[in-house]
Write a structure and sequence with these properties.
The complex is a heterodimer of chains A (400) and B (255). Chain A is of the alpha/beta class and 400 residues long. Chain A is built from 7 helices and 19 strands. Chain A folds into 2 domains: 285 residues; 56 residues, no CATH class. By secondary structure, chain B is α/β, with parallel strands linked by helices. The chains are: A alpha/beta (400), B alpha/beta (255). Chain A: It holds the Pfam family SUFBD_core.
Chain lengths: 400, 255
């Protein structure tokens, strides 16, 4: 076996120790051998964690019963604080339980190994019937600076319709959060999954969402990157049944030196499945937004239609949007397209609005909202749309 | 003597960060209630003049001044000029995807009112204003729901400009090649819209390179523009003469 010689950073040593303390010896050894993912590992080329993640809290989060601030009127609420299930509303047709996190085999991605290795509990949600009211899963990270790993598994019965909104919040100023979410969308089921980040300014957050889509399943997702110092959301989707469709969307609003990375891996493994990706990023100051989208079409996955679009709006000279589309198509009768745009606010449009009496700041915010409109228009859930709108307002206000 | 709506004195303008001079000593006085036409060939600086009046960035005034109702126009931001009563009807109205025309109209009207220290329009009041003005220009409600200028035909874009002008009730209307891209029917609707706004307290500067528009919007005076300045002024007969003889007669250069 090839011997890796890596001089580990303090942060890496600390994380390896945490894994060991959590009983994840294999993951700990793998991390000690390879270190955190860095720029020479392709999936992390733009998010070099050996550089970006130098300072890590030394302890795992302790039990805490702080309730979340973010509320959704009329939703069934499930509250996970510092990795533990602390509250779950009675929701008809839904089973919710907390189990010991199942041991996982170790893979090549050290971040995923950390997620799996550090999670003590696995919250299992089974949706047996269609739901009138959405489920809100509130992830809270509280107490002194610490590392937390949440794990949620959702399974659905055939044909159910349901909405899951997750929020990540916490006053853990330098916190490091791992969150692992898996959703199995059964045949004919229709699911909406939204993730809104409401972390403290200095928070670091790594999320992995895994979706399995069965026959004629329908999935819409939306995730936001706005409130953290460093964040990465890894989205993996597997089309396992014909006729399934998924829309993946992302909203990135970053400033100062924030760094946000959306990495998608959409695998069309069977014929007749369709997907869209719509990711919009607005960055200012020295912020960096990354979008990496990989679409894989298996050899017999004929009639796949996969559309990827990433759009960036740069509001400062030193802000960056980095985009990497990858298509691996092994079938011959498919429609796949990827597009990326990146630009500044249109000066002609600004002048036009100003020439009608609208002040520059308001004109800018009109154009920014217009840029994002597509994401909002597609979102039928009103409370989610309002929360996103508030987020955009707050971001614009903070930037002024 | 009443203050003219617009006084342009010895205006010299160049493109910012370039040596290219575009306006080379424009003098023009536009009294209240009058309609003046500026005619000139392409590239003579007509559109630059309209942009400088409206406050577009990217130009540098190197000499001269512009007084708008006695005030120094060049000191004002584009939005302040609009609130003070200056309106530019664009030659090429900008498409703004994601902003519904109605939303835009409301934002613009209220922004101007706010700058002037007036109260915002109530929604029913606003709806009625828009409906009346739209009807007069044969603009369908459906068009107002669409994103601003997106997918509008040439005629629709120009009608939308005149609709804005009607709603904003400016003291000075600058119409930049409003006839371009219009067929005869659309030209008539747009001209009627403009003529309807002629008023003793409102002045208009109509920029065009065809005499045709001036058959519909009859000017009080005509100025011939060449190489960045006014080379000849006269009554509306001058436009006809220009049409007959061509620009070369006036600026001494072949077309």
């Amino acid at each position: 076996m090839e011997q890796q010689v890596v001089k580990l950073t303090d942060a890496e040593n600390q994380l390896a120790d945490l894994l060991k303390a959590a009983g994840a010896n294999d993951a700990s050894n793998a991390l000690s051998a390879h270190g955190l993912p860095h720029r020479r590992i392709e999936e992390y080329h733009y998010t070099d964690l050996r550089t970006l993640l130098r300072d890590v809290p030394s302890d795992l989060a302790q039990a805490n019963d702080r309730l979340p601030d973010v509320q959704f009127e009329g939703y069934g609420r499930i509250v996970i604080v510092n990795g533990k299930l602390v509250h779950a509303d009675e929701i008809g047709g839904v089973e919710i339980k907390s189990a010991d996190a199942a041991a996982k085999s170790v893979g090549n991605d050290q971040i995923i190994n950390l997620m799996d290795g550090l999670a003590q509990n696995q919250i299992e949600i089974t949706i047996n019937t269609s739901l009138d009211k959405p489920i809100h899963i509130a992830h809270v990270h509280d107490g002194p600076d610490s590392v937390v790993a949440d794990k949620v598994r959702v399974t659905t019965a055939e044909g159910v319709h349901a909405t899951i909104v997750e929020t990540f919040e916490g006053a853990n100023a330098r916190g490091l959060r791992f969150a692992n979410f898996a959703l199995d969308v059964a045949a004919d089921a229709e699911m909406l999954h939204v993730q809104l980040d409401q972390n403290a300014e200095g928070a670091r957050q790594f999320v992995q969402n895994t979706y399995d889509l069965h026959e004629n399943a329908n999935l819409r997702t939306l995730a936001s990157h706005a409130n953290f110092k460093l964040g990465r959301t890894d989205i993996k989707a597997d089309f396992k049944g014909e006729g399934a469709h998924a829309d993946f969307a992302g909203l990135t609003l970053l400033m100062d030196q924030q760094h946000g990375d959306f990495t998608l891996n959409v695998n069309h493994g069977v014929p007749n499945t369709t997907s869209t990706e719509t990711f919009k990023s607005i960055v200012r100051d020295r912020a960096k937004a990354i979008f990496q989208g990989k679409i894989i079409v298996a050899p017999d996955a004929q009639k796949t239609d996969a559309q990827m679009m990433s759009q960036g709006l740069l509001l400062s000279e030193r802000a960056e949007v980095l985009v990497k589309p990858e298509l691996e198509i092994f079938a011959d009768d498919v429609l796949c397209a990827h597009g990326a745009t990146c630009g500044e606010l249109d000066e002609d449009a600004l002048f036009y609005l100003m020439s009608r009496g609208i002040k520059r700041a308001e004109a800018e915010s009109m154009l920014i909202r217009a840029f994002l409109a597509e994401l909002f228009d597609e979102m039928e859930n009103e409370q989610v749309r309002d929360k996103l709108g508030d987020r955009v307002d707050a971001w614009l206000a903070a930037a002024e | 003597m009443t203050t003219p709506i617009l006084e342009i004195k010895n205006l010299h303008v160049k493109v910012e960060e370039e040596d290219k001079k575009i306006l080379k000593g424009v003098d023009l006085t536009l009294p209240a209630g009058e309609v003046h036409a500026i005619m000139g060939r392409n590239g003579s600086g007509k559109s630059t003049l309209s942009y400088v009046l409206a406050g577009k960035e990217g130009y540098e005034v190197t000499e001269g001044e512009i007084l708008f109702m006695g005030k120094d126009l060049l000191e004002m931001e584009a939005d302040e000029r609009a609130a003070a009563g200056l309106f530019l009807a664009f030659q090429y109205p900008i498409e703004i995807p994601g902003v519904a025309t109605m939303t835009f109209l409301k934002a613009a009207l209220n922004a101007q009112r706010k700058t002037r220290g007036e109260e915002e329009l109530k929604v029913p009041e606003f709806m009625k204003l828009v409906k009346d003005a739209a009807n007069q220009l044969e603009i369908k409600q459906d068009m107002l729901k669409r994103p601003l200028n997106v997918g509008f035909s040439g005629g629709e874009k120009k009608r939308a400009e005149i609709l804005q002008m009607a709603l904003m009730q400016p003291s000075l209307c600058v119409l930049d090649e409003t006839d371009s891209g219009l067929d005869i029917d659309a030209l008539k609707i747009v001209s009627d819209g403009v003529n309807h706004l002629r008023d003793a307290n409102r002045s208009m500067l109509v920029i065009t390179h065809y005499q045709r528009l001036l058959n519909y919007i009859v000017p009080d005076r005509v100025h011939v523009f060449s190489d960045g300045r006014v080379v000849e002024s006269g009554d509306r007969e001058l436009a006809l003469e220009l049409e007959k003889k061509g620009y070369a007669e006036f600026d001494g250069t072949a077309a």
